[in-house]
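Budget justification aside, the reviewers requested a transparent look at the raw inputs and outputs of the sequence design task funded under Objective 1. We therefore reproduce one unedited record. The lines immediately below are the structure tokens for a 155-residue chain.
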């Protein structure tokens, strides 16, 4: 399945940092920002998470919830959340099933070297479960959450 604006977002069911299972259907009636990131507590991922943290209240005011997804363990997520006081749920996708469905897992090039891993990307799903925006590759982790907020303000 490919992720396309105007199409239904793929269903998922993953365990979250809050100890609950999370499915897309749990968020019916809300806008959902699903951001995929490579690894907890690394420089780029920390900047992105902290920027989402700083904008979280504005996102909530716009009926949007933020979900971060990586293949890190729940224990790793807990440490990351505690260290940086993150107010949103992080989902653990150790088998990269959801990341593959959302085209956030695959071949990437970093400093001229090819590897397979998480492709930093973001998908926004509307209240009806339809993809309304997709960043296939996030250009700058630390300023990306501002782009997401700007999208909400302009839509």
């Amino acid at each position: 399945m490919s992720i396309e604006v105007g199409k239904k977002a793929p269903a998922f069911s993953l365990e979250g940092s809050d100890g609950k299972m999370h499915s897309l259907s749990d968020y019916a009636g809300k806008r959902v920002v699903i951001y995929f990131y490579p690894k907890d507590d690394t420089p780029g991922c920390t900047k992105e998470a902290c920027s989402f943290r700083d904008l979280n209240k504005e996102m909530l005011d716009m009926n949007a919830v933020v979900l971060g997804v990586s293949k890190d363990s729940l224990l790793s997520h807990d440490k990351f959340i505690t260290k940086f006081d993150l107010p949103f749920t992080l989902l653990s996708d150790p088998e990269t099933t959801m990341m593959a469905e959302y085209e956030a897992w695959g071949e990437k090039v970093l400093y001229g070297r090819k590897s397979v891993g998480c492709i930093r990307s973001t998908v926004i799903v509307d209240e009806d479960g339809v993809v309304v925006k997709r960043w296939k590759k996030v250009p700058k982790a630390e300023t990306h959450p501002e782009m997401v907020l700007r999208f909400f303000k302009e839509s």
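The domain at 13-143 is CATH 3.40.30.10 (Glutaredoxin). The longest strand covers residues 64-70. Computational costs for records of this kind are itemized in the attached budget.
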